[in-house]
Amino acid sequence: MRIPPLKIAVVGASLGGLSAANVLRQLGFDAQVYELFAKGFDKRGGALGSVDLGLLRRIRLGNPDSADRAIKGHGHFYGDLWDYLFQGLPPESVHFGADVQTIADARSDRPAIVIDGDATAFDVIIGADGGKSTLRPFVTQKQPVYSGYTVWRGLVPMQGIDGPPSGSRIVNGIRYETLGFPCVGPDGPLWNCGVYMAMPQTEVAEPTRNRQVGSAMRDIPQWFVPLTKALFGQRNAQFWADCVKHGKVTPHPIWEFAADPVVAGRIALLGDAAHLSSPRTGAGAYTAMLDAWALGRAFNDASSVPEALALDNRAAVPRAKTLNDRSRRAGRAFAPDPRHSVSPTEVLDYLTRSIKALDWAAAR
Ligand SMILES: Cc1cc2nc3c(=O)[nH]c(=O)nc-3n(C[C@H](O)[C@H](O)[C@H](O)COP(=O)(O)OP(=O)(O)OC[C@H]3O[C@@H](n4cnc5c(N)ncnc54)[C@H](O)[C@@H]3O)c2cc1C
């Protein structure tokens, strides 16, 4: 490596940010991570279906003090993966409760992160701050676009609950689907499940500052369980009723995005800040880790910071676009026309009327 040690700020301490910090510290850089939440995410669910464990190990194990430890198996509980990456870093290099409000001197060679009015300058700033990224506008004016559908995610202790749900139905050319798989949470086994359904943009929330924290809806809409029954039958509806009662059900509207460029001056985006995709791709967190790994390779191979960031941009833009294309292809079944998605209440009404008509016909 030909670049002298750098001081680098990583904004966001989720899977993307911690991956980047691990990789950058392996290169001998002083990477400091800033996270707006007050504490770590080792207890946070749910599960990721597909994770490249080889990549995850390479990201962490280059660190001198990182002994390997087992990673919990399929599906991979988010908190376990997070803790695995966190343990690769000196704890004092991750600053919790640090809300980066803006960047000062964004076009200079020493841009600064601003927290509570205090500016701290760095050689490079990495925006790993997720779907509603604060740093993104310093790099690109492109904005996430709503895909036309939402995944209702359920997380519930496995004990005593028959599951996971499984079913699909096409209603007027639009696919609705419920599925799930088990995972090991901090307090025992869990069902990690989802319902994919079309929903108009007027009924969903904008991207949150943290993809993993869809705030659990205190009031699940009244149509939710009846719709799962009308779409997928009584057994699946019972699962979702149990999930609402004993677990957590949260809506995750699917927003899509691919940054171009991902680098401006000395600010570089990675993870969901650079690309937002459907969970259907199974590759959002994976691509965040890949971004971090590739960023490290770029710094390793280049002889200057601008050269490293140019190398990174050249590889990261097509990576984000490829993921975005996959996400669009996956979404066509759930929302053929994202701008005109049908409301779940309309679907429930339609299905209820159809069922009544069938009952009437059968009774004659
Ligand atoms: C239902 C669902 C299932 C999924 N399944 C999979 C799967 O099977 N496989 C897979 O690879 N991916 C999956 N994903 C995608 C994956 O969860 C995300 O792509 C991944 O979490 C992105 O990580 P990130 O670090 O880029 O961003 P995030 O996880 O969004 O983290 C961003 C971090 O930045 C912090 N932050 C934000 N703003 C600031 C600020 N101003 N200052 C300081 N900190 C800030 C946030 O608090 C947060 O900790 C799934 C996603 C969903 C919704």
TrEMBL record:
Alphabetical list of PANTHER family matching this protein: MONOOXYGENASE (PTHR13789), PUTATIVE (AFU_ORTHOLOGUE AFUA_6G14510)-RELATED (PTHR13789:SF309)
Official protein name in the record: Putative monooxygenase
Superkingdom of this protein's organism: Bacteria
Keywords from the UniProt entry: Monooxygenase, Oxidoreductase
A family per Pfam: FAD_binding_3
Domain FAD-binding: 123-299
GO MF annotation: an example: monooxygenase activity
Transmembrane intervals: none
Organism: Octadecabacter arcticus 238
